Amino acid sequence: MLQPLQQHDDKPISIRHMAHDALHDLLHFDSKILKTVPLLLFKPGKVTEGTLAGDQGYVKPFTLFVFINFIFFLIKSKGLFHYTLETYQDRAIFRDIAARKLVALGISMDVLADRFNIAMRLEQKEYLVIMVPLFALLLAGLYFIHRRPFAMHLVFALNFYSWFVLYMALIPILWLLMALCLKAFHISQDYLISENFLTIFLLASCFIYLAISIRRVYRDSWWLLIPKSAFLSTGVLALVVFVYKPVLFFIVMHSIGE
Fold this sequence. Notes:
Layout: H1 15-27, H2 32-42, H3 46-52, H4 61-75, H5 92-105, H6 109-127, H7 131-142, H8 150-184, H9 195-218, H10 222-255
C-alpha cells in the first residue's frame, strides 16, 4: 500500500525538503527527465505516486515544473496563452485601465500595445506558478476530512501542471493530425480553431487525466472520481480565466512606463 509523503529513510517529506531537492536537481539535471516525462504524459499519477513513495528516480516536482514551463514558453505557438492587449479588450475594466495608462504616459494605443505585448511575453512564464498552490488548495478542500498533508496536494498540483503545460505544447501537433484526418474525409476543419472546441477539448483531457491520477494517488473509489475530476478540471480553466490572465494584465500594465 502506498505510504504518501515518505522518503526512502521513512522520514516524512516536507515542503522545505522539497525545495532543497528542487535546488539540487536544478544544479544537477540529468537523465531522470527521460524517465519522468514519458510517464508524466502516458501514465497519469505515476510520477506523483512514485515521488510520494520516496522513489528518487524521478525529477523533483518543482524542478520538473520549472523545466517544462521554460521549454513551453520558449517554443509555444500562438493561441496557447498567447495574450496580447487586444485579447483583453472584451472587458470594460481592462479597457478603462488601458485608457488611463494612455493618458498617464501620453502615448498612442499602438505604442502601448507594442510595449504591453513585449512585456507580456517576458512575464507569462514567471507567473504560471501562481495557479499551483491555488489548485493544491482545491485538492485540500476536497480531502479536508481525510487530513492529508498539504505537501501531498502540492506535489500532485506541481506534477499535474507540468503535464498540463507539456500537453498544451503538444496540442498544435494533435491539431495538425486531426486536421489531416478531417481533410482526408472531406470534413470542414473550421470548428477546430474555435475557442469553444478548444475549451471542451481541454476540459475533457483534464477530466480523464485527473480521474486516473486521483485513482492512482488518492486511492478514491471509482464512483467518487467523476464529481471530483469534473470539479478539478473545471477549476483548472477557471484559474486560467479568472486568476492567471487578469493577474498578468495588472502586473504587465503596472510595469509599463516604470
